[in-house]
Amino acid sequence: MNRLDGTVSVVTGGGRGIGRQIALTQAEEGAAVAVLARSAAEIEETAAQITASGGRALAVPVDLVQLGAVEEAMARIEAELGPIQTLVNNHGAFRAFGPIWEVDPEVWWQDVEINLRGTFHACRAALPAMRARGAGRVVNMVGGGTGNSFPAGSGYASSKAAIMRFTECLNDTLTPEGLRAFAVDPGLVRTAMTELQLDTPEGQAHLPGIREMFDSGEDVPPTLAAAVIADIAAGRFDPLHGRLLRGADDRDAVEAEMTEIAEDDRRALRFSGL
Description:
The protein is of the alpha/beta class. It has helices at 17-28, 40-52, 67-80, 105-133, 154-174, 192-199, 201-206, 208-215, 222-233, 251-256, 258-263; strands at residues 8-12, 32-37, 57-61, 86-89, 136-141, 179-185, 244-246. α1 packs parallel to α2 (40-52) and α3 (67-80) packs parallel to α4.
């Protein structure tokens, strides 16, 4: 008996990297998995890996910036796989590197729109059915710049800080109805996104620290974030709803401290020093 048997998970940005690993891990735990992204070929490959291992999967190509398309995707998932229990908003964009007077304003805004608006749309489309059932969990991915300044990645950082606050607002709205929302920071993972930072002239010029961190051995495997999210989907970290978990966390230690973390109001986006 697997922890997520009989459940349905939706993973956005599930065609590669961290998202693919999240989808595979959800399936290994027993969930039927819907994999969403704009690239049909990539999500079909993820779905094929799941079905080849005996799982159930559905690849749904969708542009998360288009609300109508997202609503249609969620309706299709409910019709073909069943009620959604877990929504993982893993999609992301980070292409605007450098100070704001150098970056292309359209590219900067696209980072924000894909990350933040895409998360909003996925939640808005999936939550009515979850609310009607009085059960469900949402996981929103955050990252660099969520809780600190990131001058050469201001669009990405602004969107991720906003997603953290959105997660808190969402959670506080949903908790009375039996639903929960969480934020997860996967850490520095070598993905197509980080390769873009390493290989482009703009990334090399404005984000040299990324190369330095990889060269020093900092490279968090995507399996860690996937394991945290599987724990969240299974209810292990329910006392920390509305808060941040990290791929690099010692999950046993976090579980042992959950009461204290909540009482001390840690792992949240708050003003400090006031």
